[in-house]
């Protein structure tokens, strides 16, 4: 990921880049290890962060297991997939501008 982001010229915009292939992680979502490593690299607690994903069945489950608020980005307003975490465990948005409307966005 770091090489890809560097090639795209966007690496400077990220404080941490973590993937399932990193030696500290080596697990795929819905296991929360990748999110836990990210929090540690950023030096923040789960209550100070929000995870944004696009697959409720894995992203919301991983966020909940790591103690994070979760937002599912769904620009096409798809139906809930089978096996998805209950909608009460995450917020669904369809446009990035909606992030600023979330209760914790300006705190």
Provide the descriptors you would attach to this structure in a database record:
107 residues; alpha/beta; Rossmann fold; 3-stranded parallel sheet; 3 helices; 11% strand; globular
Summary?
With 107 residues, the chain is an alpha/beta fold. It contains 3 helices and 3 strands; from the N terminus they run ααβαββ. 26% of the residues lie in helices and 11% in strands.
Query: Can you identify the CATH superfamily?
Result: HAD superfamily/HAD-like
| Main β-sheet description | 3 strands, parallel
Assign an overall shape.
globular
Termini separation: 30 Å
Q: Please state the oligomeric state of the protein chains shown.
A: single chain
Calculate Rg over CA atoms.
14 Å
Q: What is the mean predicted local confidence, pLDDT?
A: 89
Order of helices and strands: HHEHEE
- Bin the helical content: 25-40%
CATH architecture heading: 3-Layer(aba) Sandwich
CATH class: Alpha Beta
Strand arrangement in the largest pleated sheet:
1-2-3
- Total of helices: 3
CATH fold group: Rossmann fold
Structural domain tally = 1
Strand content: 5-15%
Record field, number of beta strands:
3
Low-confidence stretches: none
Task: Characterise this structure.
This protein has helices spanning 2-8, 33-42, 56-66, and strands spanning 50-53, 69-73, 91-93. With 107 residues, the chain is an alpha/beta fold. It has a single domain (2-101), classed as HAD superfamily/HAD-like (Rossmann fold, 3-Layer(aba) Sandwich). It has a three-stranded parallel sheet, with helices on one face. Helix 3 links the parallel strand 1 and strand 2 (69-73). The longest helix has 11 residues, at 56-66. The relative contact order is 0.13.
């Amino acid at each position: 990921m770091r090489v890809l982001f560097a090639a795209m010229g966007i690496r400077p915009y990220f404080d941490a880049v973590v993937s399932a292939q990193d030696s500290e992680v080596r697990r795929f979502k819905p296991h929360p290890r990748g999110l836990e490593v990210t929090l540690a690299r950023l030096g923040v607690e789960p209550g100070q962060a929000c995870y944004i994903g696009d697959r409720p069945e894995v992203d919301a489950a991983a966020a909940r297991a790591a103690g994070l608020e979760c937002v599912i980005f769904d620009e096409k307003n798809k139906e809930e997939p089978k096996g998805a975490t209950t909608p009460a465990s995450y917020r669904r948005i369809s446009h990035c501008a909606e992030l600023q409307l979330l209760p914790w966005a300006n705190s």
